Amino acid sequence: MAKNWLVIPQEQRVDTLGDLNGETREVWIGLHGYGQLVEYFQRHFRELVTVERAFVFPQGTHKFYLQGTKGRVGASWMTKDERVKDIDNQRVFLKAVMQWVREQCPEARIHFVAFSQGVATVMRFLGHEPSPVHSVLAWSGSWPPDLEDRNLATLRKVNFQGWFGSDDEYIGTEKQEEILARYREEYELEPEVGYYEGGHAFDREILTSEIERLERL
Fold first, then answer.
1. Does domain 22-216 sit in CATH 3.40.50.1820?
2. Average pLDDT, stretch 137-156?
């Protein structure tokens, strides 16, 4: 059997909240977690839209039924099957999103807010972006153990803030400690990290304050 890869044009879904125009000053690109769709993920950010702040939500290209073969549908950024190719395709998609954002609002700063699986997605994308990224808010995600040099170089410069929950069923405190130890020992990095009381979900009050704080930097 011969494996072949074809480069083809595709349409991918990107939702927005707020206006993308010449008056927009802050754009947050939101990357959802495993099994989520952007139409539901964006609800966390509706009240955070302002005249100068907008949100952009690319949807992961893998879609599937969450249970069986019917009912609710979810999306993901990748699986273990052909993971390297998925990572390459993620980067192509996110580069196109950033270019589109820049065309719509050339004066805006670009930030990322990522949840769960979206965290690894954006961290592997850093350094491949066509425009500068001002900040990254990484929420309840497992930081990838396989960063490239260009990822690390950008991670050292960007305003990065991680958040972990005290009762996260997917990333417990032991896993959190392992992540921080790996980045400290292998990459000589110690990004800013905060902790909240709760599980694998946003804390609305902290989310709001962090977005406002990162925009002030």
1. yes
2. 96
